């Protein structure tokens, strides 16, 4: 059995991962470049890479000692910031009883409590919870539920999904198949992916009314294919990674009406926007609607561990159980992991007992004021804010090799993507830190576009 003294195995001391000297960080980056793959990167990726030694509150500390204000919440997840004492304690306490136990034939208090809480805080008809490992898996689970539901209701020909362009639902096959067909990975994996139906993304912005003309194309596509559609799947009100755009709640309400009219299920992917990010607890709450199936993830555990959940109505659960299989055919190894469940309970309870609405509103006002000057820049196409999400959309894609180190130099961790320089800071971010974030974003865009 290998030990830390085995020849060829790196020892922690060699890495400088916990050191604060620049050399340790440089060594870590060099080792990373030899052995590690990063998200959406070539193996030989040589772009900017920063070694993090620790994180606390809203600050990331690099191995060279520099502190950055975190503007990303580690991709929508760390809503309470890092090393929150309540969340740390929840994990520690759970470690004392069990880290994991299989979920087939066994259950435990953290999972039951989490399911009860999710049922209580989501729209009323959602009554049953399937806990899974990540957002993408939650989307796979939602899609499988919808298809099994229709086999249980004697309509097995209902196998297609209807969605909107510019969506993002994850990186596994089923999820990829409903991501934006142009920006997504359809052309790379066309042999693997089923062909679903894509309506244009909503054109009415969040604060605009939704007219008949705005839903006309969606309505036509729906009417033509309703007989073969199992479900409509979309991100409610906030299109995240694919667009960073905010559309009219009235548009979502119309989609709900059309799903009812055609007797088709509605899947709401709340993985990015859920748990207060948009100013309401869930995206669906803006429109006062309830989906038949809902996916949550990302902020569910406050950014501590990977966990997501798919909720459904009693009707969907009954249909799935009436299907020829007689059971829902999914069951991840780490389903309902107790550590993740415990920290999810702590995170949701912490959120609900905090003045999160006021905090998100305050961040929102800070983002709107701080990003406004960007609207005057020649290289900027649009500036928009909803809840604790602030976006500068540039006219041309940003040069990551230039803008990423510049943002770090300006003291913030903001990770642009294509033509989007955006932030979704932890809810505990102070007005002064929000101002530092927005000033850095505006300056970085001004100097690089
Ligand atoms: C991030 C995201 C996913 C995928 O979640 P992972 O945990 O990365 O698998 C799915 N849907 C939306 C809307 C997301 O933002």
UniProtKB/TrEMBL annotation:
Gene3D superfamilies, A to Z: Aspartate Aminotransferase, domain 1 (3.90.1150.10), Type I PLP-dependent aspartate aminotransferase-like (Major domain) (3.40.640.10)
Cofactor(s) listed: pyridoxal 5'-phosphate
Subcellular location(s) per record: Cytoplasm
Site note Participates in the substrate recognition with KAPA and in a stacking interaction with the adenine ring of SAM, residues: 40
GO terms assigned for molecular function: adenosylmethionine-8-amino-7-oxononanoate transaminase activity; pyridoxal phosphate binding
Main location: cytoplasm
Keywords associated with the record: Aminotransferase, Biotin biosynthesis, Cytoplasm, Pyridoxal phosphate, S-adenosyl-L-methionine, Transferase
One GO term of the biological process aspect: biotin biosynthetic process
Pathway where this protein functions: Cofactor biosynthesis; biotin biosynthesis; 7,8-diaminononanoate from 8-amino-7-oxononanoate (SAM route): step 1/1
Location of N6-(pyridoxal phosphate)lysine modifications: 298
Top-rank EC class of the record's enzyme: transferase
Chain spans, region Disordered: 1-25
EC assignment: 2.6.1.62
SUBUNIT field: Homodimer.
Entry function: Catalyzes the transfer of the alpha-amino group from S-adenosyl-L-methionine (SAM) to 7-keto-8-aminopelargonic acid (KAPA) to form 7,8-diaminopelargonic acid (DAPA). It is the only aminotransferase known to utilize SAM as an amino donor.
Family statement: Belongs to the class-III pyridoxal-phosphate-dependent aminotransferase family. BioA subfamily.
The protein's name in its UniProt record: Adenosylmethionine-8-amino-7-oxononanoate aminotransferase
Encoding gene per record: bioA
């Amino acid at each position: 059995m290998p030990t830390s003294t085995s020849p060829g195995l790196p020892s922690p001391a060699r890495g400088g991962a916990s050191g604060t000297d620049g050399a340790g960080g440089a060594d870590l980056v060099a080792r990373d470049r030899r052995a590690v793959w990063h998200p959406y990167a070539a193996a030989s990726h040589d772009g900017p890479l920063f070694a993090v030694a620790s994180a606390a509150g809203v600050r990331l500390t690099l191995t060279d000692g520099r502190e950055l204000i975190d503007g990303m919440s580690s991709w929508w997840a760390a809503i309470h910031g890092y090393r929150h004492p309540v969340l740390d304690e929840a994990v520690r306490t759970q470690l004392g009883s069990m880290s994991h136990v299989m979920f087939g034939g066994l259950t435990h208090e953290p999972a039951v409590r989490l399911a009860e809480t999710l049922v209580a805080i989501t729209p009323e008809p959602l009554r049953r919870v399937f806990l899974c490992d990540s957002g993408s898996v939650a989307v796979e689970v939602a899609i499988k539920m919808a298809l099994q539901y229709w086999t249980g209701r004697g309509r097995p020909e209902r196998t297609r999904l209807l969605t909107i362009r510019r969506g993002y639902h994850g990186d596994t096959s089923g999820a990829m198949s409903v991501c934006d067909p142009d920006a997504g990975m359809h052309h790379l994996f066309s042999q693997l992916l089923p062909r679903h139906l894509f309506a244009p993304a909503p054109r009415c912005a969040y604060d605009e009314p939704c007219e008949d003309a705005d839903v006309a194309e969606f309505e036509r596509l729906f009417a033509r294919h309703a007989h073969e559609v199992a479900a409509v799947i979309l991100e409610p009100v906030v299109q995240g990674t694919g667009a960073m755009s905010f559309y009219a709640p009235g548009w979502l309400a119309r989609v709900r009406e059309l799903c009812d009219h055609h007797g088709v299920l509605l899947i709401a992917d709340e993985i990015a926007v859920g748990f207060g990010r948009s100013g309401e607890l869930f995206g669906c709450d803006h429109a006062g609607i309830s989906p038949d199936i809902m996916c949550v993830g990302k902020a569910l555990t406050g950014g501590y561990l990977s966990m997501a959940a798919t909720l459904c109505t009693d009707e969907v659960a009954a249909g799935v159980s009436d299907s020829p299989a007689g059971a829902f055919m999914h069951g991840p190894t780490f389903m309902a992991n107790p550590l993740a469940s415990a920290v999810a309970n702590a995170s949701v309870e912490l959120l609900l007992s905090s003045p999160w609405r006021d905090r998100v509103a305050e961040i929102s006002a800070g983002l709107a004021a701080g990003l406004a000057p960007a609207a005057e820049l020649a290289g900027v196409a649009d500036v928009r804010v909803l809840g604790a999400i602030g976006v500068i959309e540039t006219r041309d894609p940003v040069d990551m090799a230039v803008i990423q180190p510049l943002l770090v130099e300006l003291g913030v961790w903001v990770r642009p993507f294509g033509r989007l320089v955006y932030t979704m800071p932890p809810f505990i971010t102070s007005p002064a830190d929000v101002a530092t974030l927005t000033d850095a974003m505006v300056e970085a865009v001004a100097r690089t576009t």
